[in-house]
Amino acid sequence: xxxxxxxxxxxxxxxxxxxxxxxxxxxxxxxxxxxxxxxxxxxxxxxxxxxxxxxxxxxxxxxxxxxxxxxxxxxxxxxxxxxxxxxxxxxxxxxxxxxxxxxxxxxxxxxxxxxxxxxxxxxxxxxxxxxxxxxxxxxxxxxxxxxxxxxxxxxxxxxxxxxxxxxxxxxxxxxxxxxxxxxxxxxxxxxxxxxxxxxxxxxxxxxxxxxxxxxxxxxxxxxxxxxxxxxxxxxxxxxxxxxxxxxxxxxxxxxxxxxxxxxxxxxxxxxxxxxxxxxxxxxxxxxxxxxxxxxxxxxxxxxxxxxxxxxxxxxxxxxxxxxxxxxxxxxxxxxxxxxxxxxxxxxxxxxxxxxxxxxxxxxxxxxxxxxxxxxxxxxxxxxxxxxxxxxxxxxxxxxxxxxxxxxxxxxxxxxxxxxxxxxxxxxxxxxxxxxxxxxxxxxxxxxxx
Length: 449
What we know:
With about 450 residues, the protein is of the alpha+beta class. About 55% of the residues lie in helices and about 15% in strands.
């Protein structure tokens, strides 16, 4: 057998050793192959001639082959491992995404998520901090030093990657910014960790959205129930109150009462009329909220409407201090006359009650391109900034006046609902020096009417 053939066979043997075992094992095989070639096949036979340059060339060739093959094999093995790890991570992430859609959104998501993550990714420990619920859920064993790592990650806003302890932590970010923190201890590549963090954040965000929807639905049902109860109570109260009012009016009309008796009957008559008006407002509110109130769309002359409202004011001195300014006496708006009158009447009544005694009350009406703007101004105590939106809520009254001026907190809420029925708006501006002005704007050609 020729030396060339044997050398090629030894080279194949070195290739196999480098491919399956590695560089150092292939190096040993290379030395043994060169030694066997020199001893058994090179002249003189059965003698070592280490000084022969061919032996050194053969050894260098075998070593170079071992190095190249071992490196290529290691690189291929590493790529194969990465591909396998990537495929496994994708499968785990897919399973987590599918399982997270089946979470019970009525329960806090933290504990459900950490159990899922530990089971699917087979990590040693998982911790999740939910900033909305201010709670941290843990699965697995964490030492005292790492017990709050998820909370600390959320508070600091910085990611953690500790190779020594195989611990990683990420901030959970939702639509409104940071919503929590997630920490893991175990072998997991950074790309999978980032994708896992995103899935956990989506699950926590879904739970928060579900909670908001539940609260909104509960509030809506509660509001419907309250409106129904008010409607029923107002109906039940209004009938006997009307009877009492009729009786007291009859007593006053028939006469024959002493002065003291007339005063008592007048008080009863006045307060009964007030309670009837309150029941009417409650009924109106309930109907506006439920959409059961038909809106009578007619052309309303603004000047005529305000004149009628001012004519209803019984005290002459009160009527005299009200000044009205309308840029066009023929100005008309398409609206429900009764509802529009109720809003303005409420504004005027508020101005009379809360203004400085004897000061002027100014009503101004002007027209823009597509809207008619009403304003009622009075001089008196200002409304705090934090109350300017809330005074249009039902039953709310500013703490500054709740003990000094009588009221129910219903009138402005009804005015807001009536304005909304016309696709209009109500608001107020108030200043210690300039006084308080209530505004109403409604489309000239009507809204939902």
